[in-house]
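Field log, afternoon session.

UNIT: design team B
ACTIVITY: writing a sequence onto a fixed backbone
BACKBONE:
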């Protein structure tokens, strides 16, 4: 079973940047489409972005232009670059395999996530 580990979160000032990482052990990520999701306090988890096995990128409309998803198959990692962050970007960020061509997680197994807090 594919299990992913998120890292790279932290405290960032409004307007700042942060790079999140998603890693897997024992399994090669390049066999999967991978998505990033986030959950703000007292809100439902929402899809943020996905990258296909072929490297095609998809973004939540409201975030396009500020977030960039990428993958490095040699390092077995998927990344999410956050820029020009606002307080609305605060939340726990998760990565997960997604059903190809969709924003739907492949399963209901989630990691610990990585906390992003945007505050001055």
């Amino acid at each position: 079973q594919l299990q992913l580990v998120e890292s790279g979160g932290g405290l960032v000032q409004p307007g700042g940047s942060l790079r999140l990482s998603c890693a897997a052990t024992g399994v090669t990520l390049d066999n999967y489409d991978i998505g990033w999701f986030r959950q703000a306090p007292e809100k439902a988890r929402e899809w943020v972005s996905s990258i296909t096995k072929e490297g095609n990128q998809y973004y939540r409309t409201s975030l396009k232009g500020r977030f960039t998803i990428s993958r490095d198959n040699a390092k077995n990692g998927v990344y999410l670059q956050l820029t020009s962050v606002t307080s609305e970007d605060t939340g726990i960020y998760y990565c997960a395999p997604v059903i190809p061509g969709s924003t739907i997680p492949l399963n209901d197994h989630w990691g610990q996530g990585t906390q992003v807090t945007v505050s001055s």
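LOG NOTE: Strands lie at 4-7, 10-12, 18-24, 33-39, 46-51, 57-59, 67-72, 77-82, 91-98, 114-118.
NEXT ACTIVITY: expression trials, pending approval
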